[in-house]
Amino acid sequence: MPEKQYVIDDFSVQESWRIFRIISEFVDGFETLSEIYPAVSVFGSSSVGQEDPIYQLGLQVGRLLAESGFSVVTGGGPGAMEAANRGAMEAKGKSVGLCIQLPKEQAANPYTNVKLDFRYFFIRKVMFVKYAVAYVILPGGFGTMDELFEALTLIQTHRIKQFPVILLGKDYWKDLISWIRKTMVSNHMISPDHLDLFQVLDDPAAAVSAIKRIVIL
């Protein structure tokens, strides 16, 4: 019986310290990112190389956002994230990387002038949303889809103020959009007007223009 009690007590102590770690990450995030507003969070695959058209798309959108006065926020990793950060840095803008600790280490890209490391995904997600006036979604995998649908859910449920959510690369997104329209809408899982919560574009300049039409700097 005493041995079992020790185990319970040890678990309680660990949970208490976890609360302090969580608070610490929130405080670090709020203090570090308080001066990056207005920012645009850019998401996309970590797997693409510099010669990939998706990388070039990220490079262009990062540069154009920075030239327009927006901070550029990414997950701080390689691929499309690196491209957007690089574009912002080369345009002498604020280039922010919100890195996450993963079991399989993902190296931070070298193109950030503001960088934070997170242990907890949910805190990092708060930071992506809190300072963003728009989301730009480049082609990507599960992580990119996660950020996309989380933003749409928060807007749909009025948990955050509606802001532009722009998917770049029509060819990549066309089948997903078709499925949403033909399956989700037709089965009344979402309303037809929920399709208006996002735009699908090909041109980075058009994406930045769409953001600037709504966001007053």
Describe, in plain words, how this protein is organized in 3D:
It is a single chain. A seven-stranded parallel β-sheet has the order 4-3-2-1-5-6-7, sandwiched between helices. It is built from seven helices and seven strands, in the order H-E-H-E-H-E-E-H-E-H-E-H-E-H. It is globular, with a radius of gyration of 19 Å. The chain has a single domain (2-214), classed as Rossmann fold (3-Layer(aba) Sandwich), CATH 3.40.50.450. Helix 3 (80-90) links the parallel strand 2 (71-74) and strand 3 (95-100). It has 217 residues and is an alpha/beta fold.
Strand content range:
15-25%
**Integer count of domains:** 1
Do you know the CATH topology? Answer: Rossmann fold
Low-confidence stretches: none
Report the total helices.
7
